[in-house]
Design brief:
Two copies of one chain form a homodimer. By secondary structure, chain A is of the alpha/beta class. Chain A has a single domain, classed as Maf protein, CATH 3.90.950. In chain A, strands 1, 2, 4, 5, 6, 7 and 8 form a seven-stranded mixed sheet that branches. Chain A starts with 7 loop residues before the first strand and ends with a helix. Chains A and B meet through strand 3, strand 5, helix 3 and helix 4 of A and strand 3, strand 5, helix 3 and helix 4 of B.
């Protein structure tokens, strides 16, 4: 069932950079994005979508009034069987980029493929859940480069490029990135819903 | 409030080895341990206790009748800021022991300290939660040894010993281990409750 396009949307995230990215993308549609930094439990699940959906149900049960969005993202490294995946934030805060590079120290450049994945979850005004996913394929660089972005951005080189996410301007990264892709799918959904 | 000592106790775990260890320890008290392999969501939390408590509340909400126990454990490596910690199972299934050894490749033997931690959570017949914790300090060996146990046991050498957990017989490991310690605290609790 179609719900009206929100004029104001809370983004439940502790990451101001993520909120700024969504804000920039929604501004042309006159949707105001407000960061809500409350936390919510993230389940240990195999997919980002499960993590996001469990978080949304928790927030609804806690009484947070929709509409709101939340997002989960992670880096999946093929040679490491998908590690760190849904636990990317913990990996970043513990072993960090030096740890990732050590784990790949003897892995050839052509087999250092990885993908950043994102799941943006929109909880509409009626409490319905809508998941929008994005993937950005690339590889892990042999050393860190750049100061932009956050997390593993300094070692991730998107396919077809030779610079890391951290070496790109926000708009350039967003045009390529997993999160940018998920946001664009969300925008398409809002446009279709508005027409319906 | 004291609840009667259970005669039959479900252990909600997918790990038959853990169930066998608890069964061996509770047999002398004529408490039957039955493995229940249903899964439950594990939250991404900072402590094992939070993971176990959230799991217990989920199982109760789902209608699992107490009494039952569940357990969470992890390996916390000091030089890696506590990684893999509560995400030990995921780390084991992805980067595994070779990954852990790579991350510590340039770390001197004297700074390879680590601790295994366990939290055993007992949900009594009235739905009350009781947490029993255990810690085993030690260090990460320079190479894997032994075939016993599971997880990171082949590279964990408990303090004061020169063999890994995987080189020890189950009873020897249990006398030292984090899980054995948590189980003994649980037994003391049952004994006190029976007296009250």
């Amino acid at each position: 069932m179609a719900t009206p396009t929100p004029r104001r949307l809370a983004f439940v995230t502790g990451n101001a950079g993520k909120a700024a990215e969504l804000r920039a993308q929604l501004a042309p549609r006159a949707i105001e994005v407000v960061q809500d930094s409350r936390g919510y439990p993230e389940v240990q699940a195999d997919t980002l979508r499960e993590v996001a959906e469990a978080g949304a149900r928790h927030l609804l049960a806690e009484g947070l009034r929709p509409p709101f969005v939340l997002e989960d993202s992670g880096l999946f490294v093929a040679a490491l069987r998908g590690w760190p995946g849904v636990y990317s934030r913990h990996a970043m805060e513990t072993v960090g980029i030096p740890g990732l590079l050590k784990l790949l120290a003897d892995v050839e450049l052509e087999t250092r493929s990885a993908a950043f994945q994102a799941c943006l979850l929109y909880v509409d005004g009626a409490g319905g859940l809508h998941a929008f996913e994005g993937t950005c394929a690339g590889r892990i660089a042999e050393r860190a480069a750049g100061t932009g972005g956050f997390g593993f951005d300094p070692v991730f080189v998107p396919r077809g490029h030779d610079r890391t996410f951290a070496q790109m301007a926000p708009a350039e990264k967003s045009a390529l990135s997993h999160r940018g892709q998920a946001i664009r799918r969300f925008l398409e959904f809002l446009d279709e819903t508005a027409k319906a």
